[in-house]
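User: For documentation purposes, I need each entry recorded in a consistent format: the amino acid sequence on its own, followed directly by the corresponding C-alpha cells. There are two entries in this batch. Please keep commentary to a minimum and don't merge the entries.

Assistant: Recorded as requested. Entry 1:
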Amino acid sequence: MKYPFSAIPSRGQLQFPNGAKVALIITANLEYWDLVKDTDKPYYAGGPPILPDLLPGNVPDFPNFTWREYGQRVGIWRLFECFDNAGIPLSCTMNAKTALEIPQIIEAVKERKWEMLAHNYEQGELMTNFADDPVKEEEIIKATLDVYTDAIGKPALGWLSSSLRGTMNTCSIIKKNGLLFYCDLMNDDQPYLIETPNGPIVGIPYSNEINDFTLMTRRGYTNDQFVDVLKCELSELLSESIRANSSRLMNLGLHPHVSGRAYRMPAIREFLDFAKKQDGVWFATREELARWYLDNHDGHIQ
C-alpha cells in the first residue's frame, strides 16, 4: 500500500456532480462484540470502554458489554427514526457477526436501501493482530465478505477495519477480492487513489475527529458543543470549497450506543436540519463518490 504525499493547495480541482461543494457522508457503525474471548489478557473491544480497568477476555464485563449492547437494542432504532424523518440516508458499516447475531438491524438497513460497508468479522478482532500473517488476515476478510454477500444479497464494495486498524496488506487483500474503496485512512478532506500490488483502490477518508465517540465520550462535549463542532466543520468546508473552486468531503461517524441516547437526539436533529439548509451539500454514498472519483481523478493528484 502506498500513496503520494499531496498538499491540498497543489492539487487539481475537483468538481463534484451537480455543483456540490461538500460530499457529506454520515456513518452509522453497526458493530458486534463478543461477551468473552478465549484469553486471560485484557480484552480491547475495538474501542474504549465506558468503565476503565479492563477485565481479562475470558471474564464477562457486563458494564462495558451492555453499554455497547444498548446501541443495538435501543439506540440504533432512534437513529433510524431520526434519519427517516430527516429524509437523509445513513452510510452503514457492518461487522459480519452483526448480520449473524442481530439480523433485524441489517434487514432494517436493507429495507431503506441504504449503503452498507464490510467492517471486519467481529469488532474486538483487529486486523493488526495479523500484521505479520497476511494469509490469516485474508481468511478473516474473506469470511467477512462471505457473510456480507449472504446477508446483503450482493458483494461488498467498501471496507472499514475495526478501530480503523488495518495493516500494510489490508488494501491489497480487499482489492484482490473485488472491493472498490477503503476507509481506514483519516488524512484528507478529499478522496484519492491508493496503490496496491493488485491495482489502485479509492481512499474515502473516515474521521475520528468528527466523530461522536471522540467528541461525546472521550471529550465529554455537551449537545451544544457537539452541534457547534459539526456546524463549524461543514460551514468551513463549504467556504473553502468555494474559495478553492474544489470540492471537499466531510464524514461524521456515529455509534448507536453513543449518539443513540435519548438526550443526544436533539443534537443530531439540529445538525441534520442545518445541513439540509446549506447550498452545495451532497448527501453522498461512498460508492457514488468512489465511482465518480475513478471517472474524474485525472489531474487531481500527480
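Entry 2:
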Amino acid sequence: MVRLKGNKPRKPTMAARPVEGPTNRRRHILLATAVLASAALSFGFLQAERTATASSQFRVAALEVRGLRLLTGDEVLQQSGVVVGDGLFDIDLDAVAERLNHLVWVRAARVERKPPDRLIVHLEERRRVAWIEYHQRQHGIDVDGVLLPPNRLLSEGIADLDLPVLRVPVPGDSLVVGQVVADSSVQRLLAWWSQAREVAPELVGDISEFETYDNDALVLRLVADNLEVRLPFGRVRERLATLREVLGRVYSECPNPVYVDLRFAGQAVVGRQPAATMMAPKRETGRNKKIGSSADSEGARHG
C-alpha cells in the first residue's frame, strides 16, 4: 500500500448525540403525567371499593332461599354460617355453599350476592323415591342412592311418603345416613325405578315392593293382592306396557294368580296353584285368549 506524503490517519470520531428539542420534552412530560393519573385513578377505585364494602349499606340483612320445600329457612340460615350484619362482599360464597351441601336433605347448593343487602341461595333438595330397610327401620333413599333419615319431616305430605320398599340384603352396619348406598344391585334397581316413574306413572303407584330376581331380572309386588311380577331389566317402557296389557287379562282369565313372569320372549307365564298358564300379549299374536297350560313347580312353590 502506498501512503500519501503528509497525510496522517485520522481517528474515528464519536457519533454526534442529537440535541433534545422541545417536542421530545413535551412528549416525556405528557407520558409521565398519564402514568401518574392512571395510578391515582386505580388507587381511587380501590379506595372507593373498600369504602363501599365497608359501608353499612352493604351488610347482609337476609338470605333469599329458592328451591326450598322440605327444609326451613331457619335451618338454612343456621347451616350457612352467615350472620345478619356480615359484610356482603366479605363472604366466601363457595364456603357457604359447601356448608349447605353438608345438610342431608341438600343435593346441591349455589350462593350469589344481591346488593345491597342480601344473599340468594339456590337449593336442590333430595327427595325420597323409595324406602329401604336398615336397622329394622324404613329409611328413605333418593334417586342417587343416598340414604335419608327414617323420620318424616313436617313438610312432607302423603305423596312424599307413599313409596315402594326396595328389598335388598344390606350388611348390618355398613350404611350411613347422608351417604350413598354403595351396592350395585341398589343402584341398578334405582335406575330402573327412575325410568319406570317417568314412562308409566299410572302403574308405579300400584307397586308396593321391588327387588332383584336374578342377574338380569327384577321382581315387583303389587299393592292390591301382593301379586308377584317378574320382568327383565331394560326396555322399561315396552315391558311395562306389556305388563299393563297382561294384567287386564290375568284378572279376568286366571283366578287367584300367584305370579306373572314376563322374562320369556313373546309370552307371559301366569303362575297359579298348582299350575301355570301361558299367555301371549295381544300385540304380538293378535289373540285374546289362553294359549296353553302346563304344570309349573315354581307356581306350586309360590302358591
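Summary note for entry 2:
The radius of gyration is 38 Å.
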